[in-house]
Structure formats: C-alpha cells, structure tokens
C-alpha cells in the first residue's frame, strides 16, 4: 500500500488557504520520496501565523498559487491513502482550496490520522501532539514547517507499522465537500 503523508500551513485563522505544503510518500515501511512547496495564498497573513510558520507575504510572493500548484501535486496526492497529524485540519484546508479555485475533485478521500495511531500505539505518552511524538520517538522536527511536519507524520505511520498495527482499521473516508469524516 502507498501512503501520502502531508501537512499544510495556513496564512491566517480562517484556515481556508495554504501558504505551504509538505508531502512524504511511504511505500512498504519507508519514505521513498518527499515534495514541498511554498504557496501564494492570495490573501493576508496574520501575525500569529507569521510567528508560527515564519511565512509572510514577501516570502510567498513569487510562489505558485494553489491552482497553479495543483497539477504538480495532484498525481502524488491521489496516488495513495492520505495521512496527516490531526487530519481533519489538513483535509479541511485542502477542501477549501479545491473549492475556492473550482478544481474538480473526488468526493471521498481515504485517510489515516496519526494522532489516533499515536494514541493507540503509545497510550503512555503525555499527549500526542506532533512535537511530543517526535521527541518521544527521537525524530528530528522543525515544527510548523510543512516539509518537516509531513516527514515526521510519515515516520509516525511507519512506527505504527513496526508495532504491527493493521492500518486498514485506522483508515477512514473524508467527504471533501462536506468537510467531515464519513460515518
């Protein structure tokens, strides 16, 4: 099975545009490829998000917007089960971007949330935030940088595989237009 760990950063509290995306492709039990890009969200940045991500209007000024980037990342994103840490956030932002740019897309997207995996595999951890999990698993993390966050998310998935977890039991379907998990 192929898994596509991804992470997005956003420019403001609306969380309806991306300012960067990171992707890590997992096959077997290893990351075989990575991709990342800045994205011009074509909207304003809030100071909170600037402080968190280090991104601002001047940094992304010459980056492609989401519609320009989509033809590059769509084949990757559609090539396996999506994986994200607190997946509802990243999937919601993806949905907003697809709809804002009127990009045709599939209705249901299979995904795994590594927060749930972490809780199952490591119930003894004090919490299952990405930075906590990275620290406890001795993974290098440059937090709130989409490329680093996606790689660590992929490594958490691989850790679950090494613990013998049946990932199909953690795979859900996300309804993109409704922005919710299918029950």
TrEMBL record:
Keyword ATP-binding: no
Gene3D superfamilies assigned to the protein according to its UniProt record, in alphabetical order: Ribonuclease H-like superfamily/Ribonuclease H
GO annotation terms (biological process): DNA replication
Entry superkingdom: Bacteria
GO terms of molecular function: 3'-5' exonuclease activity; DNA binding; DNA-directed DNA polymerase activity
GO CC annotation terms, alphabetical: cytosol
Keywords: Exonuclease, Hydrolase, Nuclease
Record carries keyword Nuclease: yes
Span of domain Exonuclease: 2-166
NCBIfam families noted in UniProt: dnaq
UniProt cross-references to PANTHER family, sorted A to Z: DNA POLYMERASE III SUBUNIT EPSILON, EXONUCLEASE
Protein's recorded name: Exonuclease
Species name: Intestinibaculum porci
Source lineage: Bacteria, Bacillati, Bacillota, Erysipelotrichia, Erysipelotrichales
């Amino acid at each position: 099975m192929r898994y596509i760990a991804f992470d997005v950063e956003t420019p403001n509290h609306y969380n309806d545009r991306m300012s960067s995306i990171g992707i890590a492709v997992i096959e077997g039990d290893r990351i075989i490829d990575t991709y990342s890009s800045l994205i011009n969200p074509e909207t304003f940045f809030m100071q909170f998000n600037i402080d968190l991500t280090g991104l601002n209007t001047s940094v992304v000024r010459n980056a492609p917007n989401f519609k320009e980037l989509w033809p590059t990342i769509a084949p990757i994103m559609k090539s396996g089960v999506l994986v994200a840490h607190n997946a509802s956030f990243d999937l919601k932002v993806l949905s907003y971007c697809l709809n804002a740019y009127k990009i045709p897309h599939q209705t249901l997207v299979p995904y795994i949330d590594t927060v749930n995996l972490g809780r199952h595999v490591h119930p003894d951890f004090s919490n299952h935030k990405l930075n906590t999990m990275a620290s406890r698993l001795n993974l290098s993390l440059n937090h709130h940088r989409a490329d680093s966050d996606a790689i660590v998310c992929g490594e958490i998935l691989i850790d679950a595989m090494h613990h013998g977890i049946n990932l199909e039991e953690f795979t859900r379907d996300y309804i993109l237009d409704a922005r919710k998990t299918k029950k």
